[in-house]
Amino acid sequence: MGGCPVMHQAHTTTASAATDWWPNSLNLDILHQQDNKTNPMGADFDYAEAFKTLDLEAVKQDLKNLMTDSQEWWPADWGHYGGLMIRMAWHSAGTYRNSDGRGGSNTGNQRFAPLNSWPDNVNLDKARRLLWPVKKKYGNKLSWADLMILAGNMAYESMGFETLGFAGGRADIWHPEKDIYWGSEREWLAATKNRYDDDNERESLENPLAAVQMGLIYVNPEGVDGNPDPLKTAQDIRTTFARMSMNDEETVALTAGGHTVGKCHGNGDATALEDEPEAAGIQEQGLGWRNPNGTGNAGDTVSSGIEGAWTTHPTRWDYEYFELLFNHNWALTKSPAGAWQWEPTDIKEEDKPLDAHDPSVRRNPMMTDADMAMIKDPAYRKISENFHKNPEYFDEVFARAWFKLTHRDLGPKSRYLGADVPAQDFIWQDPIPESPADLNADDIATLKAKIATQIDNGSLSRRELIITAWDSARTYRGSDLRGGANGARIRLAPQKNWVANEPEQLGRVLDALTQIQTEFAKDVSLADLIVLAGNTAIEQAAADAGVHAQVPFETWRGDATDEMTDADSFNDLEPRHDGYRNWVKDNYAVSPEEMLLDRSQLMGLTAPEMTVLIGGMRVLDTNYEHKQHGVFTDRAGVLSNDFFVNITDMNLTWHPTDDNDDASHTSNLYEVRERKTGKVKWQATRVDLVFGSNSILRAYSELYAQDDNLEKFVHDFINAWNKVVTADRF
Questions:
Q1: Alpha helices in 436-525 (DSSP H)
Q2: How far is CA 85 from CA 29, 107, 122, 261, 440, in A?
Q3: Secondary structure class of 352 (helix, strand, coil)
Q4: What is the number of other CB atoms lying within 10 angstroms of the CB of residue 237?
Q5: Residue 179: what pLDDT?
Q6: What is the 8-class DSSP label of residue 97?
Q7: Which residues contact residue 730 at a Cβ distance below 8 angstroms, ignoring those fewer than 6 apart?
């Protein structure tokens, strides 16, 4: 190796390896995820426009044909790939969690590590490879993300279930989503205690996680930590499904509907499976988990280790799941692979399913510990009994829950594409009416003049208007396309009461803007007016700095109502921190600067955009409760580059302070002193100081501190600001 002319991975000291050498260095990779250099489609490609040219009916028919066109290299159970395709779609969508909106099916992330190699995704690589001919045929018109969900839908329809519909619009990513935190464990299926504050209190599962163990989508099907106990498993199920926005009824429906078809695979030695896709040899060509025993597939397939079907007829939609679950005695046993499962002790031969690959043999059905929870947990049992007695109602609830599962992170209905989009609106889609405004340039100028009058007469301050617009828009998260300024939900519960939104100040601003809205001759939404007011204040602040610039503005936002708002679900969007306003709600194990990166990534911001926004928000004096940390300027309220000039000033020194009354992290507060006199000039937080200490962020800070870059700073700030307040326009 010493004579090799190529630099080996172990010897590299690139940016990606810097944290190995300096583990305490702030890692900006989460923001570099916004970089499109890995996307081979180019900036001009518009997936939505490409999808609109797709012959969706032809795709659906090809998928239905595929379900029973078994290929020799991976034979289908009972000659039907339905169960496999449903599991693939389910596991693609099922990684979604409502706490940060990450995961889910919206990006086709299952193609990449770590998801492509998770223990819970064993052999789903085969499902995606079986779909390749369809993807190849329809090309750029059909993303992998859309194809995987549509394949699940067509699997159900080919087996007799009528789905609620399908919406396209999921554009593929081209590299792994490294920004998603799946847990701190360094081994697959590590004990669940690693994720709980209290192992006996299952609701204490670490946020933002939803799965109970590393490498699982939901819960361990054998029981908590592989120990069967349906009542304890029920607790895990309830917490996990709640973390993905599902209530008890939806949870039972999804469990039953998912287990009505298909089977589990554990007819062999699970320890004999070879490496997962990311670790497999190059000759495997991206496939993993090769089974050297027997045929390695068909009747010898090993996935979960559990073996058997849930129902008598696993390739058709029926109601046998509840029939078998309620009408038999179930005993704990083990599969050939040694996994815990439940089997009936009193079933007739004709009620047993046929072997998946030998029609001359019948096998016992089975249930997982999660299935037994559906009749052992009192609340789940009541719902299960209702579904058992009312199969049509079960169909209805499952159809809605499946659609929600597979579309939860697709964003608002305005993004839905295709002829199969359901006509009805659902509250989890966060519906918003269209903007009532039809304003021309003169109308907008008149509104800005009215806003300026409120500023001039002292009724409102520029900082208050900027803060209100920012607080309205900052809830946006690109992970599931929720939140943002559209809808003006900042005036509704729960947002109007969030401590982060300073309710008293917010109420005063909203009252003043509502008066302008009421008195204006034409219809204009409060959502538009909130943003326009913030823009107007920024333009004035830029003019005071000597830069005359206009913030782009169009009227397109509507005002949501309480009836359109699922208040409970919006609790997940409540800010616990906001580095842009130099605020944290409580003491956290994660540093403020790391939380800033997380929030910036969710908002879709790059590292330069984050930098310029921080510098602008500080000099605009927008800190929470008007605190002065990081306001490195003698002319607060002016959109100057003073923050960067002073953060890079070598005539200043930086010192930790013992004043930690509102600190969120060890040594979070600092004093900025004049080097010569030692006089305290300003105060700062870790979020402020990181823009001078981190080598990458300092490079951006130095750029904006240059004497020739004031105008660049102002224009870059306006562009980044406009990106934030329009991020939710689809």
A1: 441-456, 462-473, 503-519
A2: 33, 18, 13, 11, 51
A3: coil
A4: 26
A5: 78
A6: -
A7: 411, 412, 414, 415, 481
Q: Rounded CA gap, 310 and 646, in Å? A: 67
- As a whole number, the mean pLDDT across the chain is 95
Nearest to 92 by CA among 161, 151, 6, 167: 151
pTM of the model as a whole: 0.95
Q: Which residue has the tokens 């003019």?
A: 543
Cα–Cα distance for residue pair 10/13, rounded to 1 Å: 9
Considering 78, 80, 91, 583, which one is annotated as catalytic? 91
Per-residue DSSP letter, 685: E
- Catalytic residue selected from 74, 342, 402, 583: 74
Q: Is residue 91 flagged as an active site residue? A: yes
Q: Per-residue DSSP letters for 312-343?
A: SSTTS--SHHHHHHHHS-EEEEE-TTS-EEEE
Measured in degrees and rounded to the nearest 5, phi and psi for residue 409 equal -105, 15
% of the chain exceeding 90 in pLDDT: 90
When pLDDT is averaged across residues 578-591 and rounded to a whole number, the result is: 94
* Dihedral in degrees, nearest 10, Cα atoms 463, 464, 465, 469: 100
Between CA 309 and CA 628 the distance in angstroms is: 64
Q: Which segments of 548-694 does DSSP mark as H helices, in order?
A: 567-570, 592-602, 607-619, 642-647, 686-693
Q: Check if the beta carbon of residue 389 is closer than 8 Å to that of residue 372.
A: no
What are the Cα distances from residue 384, in Å, to 251, 389, 568?
10, 9, 25
pLDDT on residue 573: 97
Active site residue 144: no
Q: 583: how many CB neighbours lie within 10 A of its CB? A: 23
Per-residue pLDDT band at 2 (split at 50, 70, 90): low
The distance from CA 657 to its chain's CA centroid, rounded to whole angstroms, is 37
Q: How many angstroms separate the CA atoms of 457 and 612, rounded?
A: 30
Residue environment code for 183-196, b if the CB has 16+ CB neighbours within 10 A, otherwise e: beeeeebbebeebb
Q: Report the distance separating Cα 486 and Cα 388, nearest Å.
A: 42
DSSP 8-state assignment for residue 694? S
Contacts of 1 (CB under 8 A, 6+ apart): 8
pLDDT tens-digit series, residues 104-157: 999 999 999 999 999 999 999 999 999 999 999 999 999 999 999 999 999 999
pLDDT band at 11 (very low <50, low <70, confident <90, very high): very low
Cβ atoms 715, 459 nearer than 8 A: no
DSSP string, 364-430: ---B-HHHHHHHHSHHHHHHHHHHHH-HHHHHHHHHHHHHHHHHTTS-SGGG-BSTT--SS--GGG-
Which of residues 31 and 413 earns the better pLDDT score? 413
- Assign 523 a pLDDT band (cuts: 50, 70, 90): very high
pLDDT at 501: 98
Q: Judging by DSSP bridges, how do beta strands 308-309 and 330-334 pair with one another?
A: unpaired
